[in-house]
User: Fold this.
Amino acid sequence: MSISMEQMEEVLESFNDHNVERIVSHFEEEGEFLMAAGPEPHGERFVGREAIGEVLRQRFAAVPDIRWAGVKTWVCGDCAVTEWRVQGTTAHGRLDCFGCDLWQFRDRKILKKDTCYKQVIPS
Assistant:
């Protein structure tokens, strides 16, 4: 069964609400969450609801006002792409960049979320 735009909106709302339990409930038990940066070419990888929940709790604690805005979503079968602008305040200053997520679903649960974003290089 394909995912719907309504399902994607619910997932995205749970990120902006910082509702970790609701976010991980959308993932398969052994779903993957790939960060934009990390020690491997694919970024840092987290597998399973528990690991994904922990990294999200850390992210929301580090950037308590983080928000994704201007979201555009495309859905095709069991895949989706979201384009967004993320903003927030970190210990090192302001976070403000554009990015996208590549989503794969199986049986309407997130199998993989792969994050890509623009790198801001101070001049």
Summary: The domain at 5-117 is CATH 3.10.450.50 (Nuclear Transport Factor 2; Chain: A,).
